C-alpha cells in the first residue's frame, strides 16, 4: 500500500507537471503567434504606394508676383528659390521644374504631373519672357544592360599596372 501511494504521488506529480508543461507550451505558441501576427501586420501596413515631388515648390500666388519687364533675376530667386537649372552657353534663361511621381506598390514609377517654368532675361537681368510648359512626359524606359566601363574586364594585377601606367602618363 505504501508503494502504491508512493507511485501514485509520483504519477500525480508527473501528470501535473506534464499539464503545466503543456499549458506553458500552448501559451508560448500563442505568444509567438501574436508576436508574428503583429510584426506581419506592421510590415504589411508599412508597404504602401509612395508619392514624391521633385524640384521646386511653385505656387500660382508666387507666379502672380512676377511681372514682365520689372522683375529681376534676383527677385525671382528670392520668390521661387534657387532654380532647378540654368541655360547653357550664356542663354540668359533659368528653369524651374516640378515633377510629381507616384510609385505604386510593386510597380514601376509613374509621372502624374510635371511643370516647367522658363524665364528669359535681358543683359541687365530683367525678365523679358516667362513660359510655362505643362506636359506629362511619355514613359521612360531604362536600358537594363550595364554600361561597360574601362577596367571592368581587367583582373586585379592588370588594373594595378593600368593605374600605374596612367599615373606615369599624367606626371
How does this structure look, described?
The structure is a single chain. The protein is α+β, with helices and mostly antiparallel strands and 171 residues long. It has 2 domains: 1-47; 50-134. It contains 4 helices and 5 strands, in the order H-E-H-H-E-E-E-E-H. It has helices at residues 2-46, 60-64, 73-80, 156-170; strands spanning 50-55, 85-86, 93-103, 110-121, 127-134. Strands 1, 2, 3, 4 and 5 form a 5-stranded antiparallel sheet that branches. The model has no long low-confidence stretch (mean pLDDT 76).
Structural class: alpha+beta
What is the rounded Rg?
A: 35 Å
**How many DSSP E strands?**
5
Low-confidence stretches: none
Strand content: 15-25%
This entry's quaternary arrangement is single chain
Sheet of most strands: 5 strands, antiparallel
As for the number of domains, it is: 2
Number of helices: 4
Helix coverage percent: 40-55%
- Calculate the mean pLDDT score and round it: 76
Give helix and strand order, one letter per element, not per position. Answer: HEHHEEEEH
Shape: elongated
Span between termini: 105 Å
Amino acid at each position: 500500500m505504501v508503494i502504491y501511494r508512493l507511485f501514485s504521488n509520483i504519477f500525480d506529480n508527473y501528470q501535473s507537471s506534464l499539464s503545466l508543461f503543456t499549458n506553458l507550451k500552448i501559451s508560448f505558441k500563442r505568444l509567438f503567434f501574436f508576436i508574428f501576427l503583429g510584426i506581419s501586420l506592421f510590415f504589411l501596413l508599412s508597404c504602401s504606394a509612395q508619392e514624391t515631388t521633385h524640384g521646386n515648390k511653385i505656387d500660382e500666388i508666387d507666379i502672380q508676383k512676377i511681372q514682365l519687364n520689372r522683375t529681376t533675376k534676383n527677385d525671382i530667386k528670392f520668390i521661387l528659390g534657387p532654380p532647378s537649372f540654368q541655360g547653357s552657353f550664356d542663354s540668359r534663361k533659368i528653369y524651374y521644374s516640378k515633377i510629381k511621381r507616384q510609385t505604386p506598390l510593386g510597380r514601376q514609377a509613374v509621372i502624374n504631373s510635371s511643370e516647367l517654368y522658363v524665364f528669359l532675361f535681358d543683359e541687365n537681368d530683367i525678365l523679358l519672357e516667362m513660359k510655362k510648359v505643362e506636359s506629362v512626359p511619355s514613359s521612360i524606359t531604362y536600358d537594363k544592360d550595364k554600361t561597360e566601363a574601362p577596367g571592368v574586364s581587367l583582373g586585379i594585377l592588370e588594373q594595378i599596372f593600368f593605374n600605374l601606367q596612367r599615373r606615369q602618363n599624367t606626371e
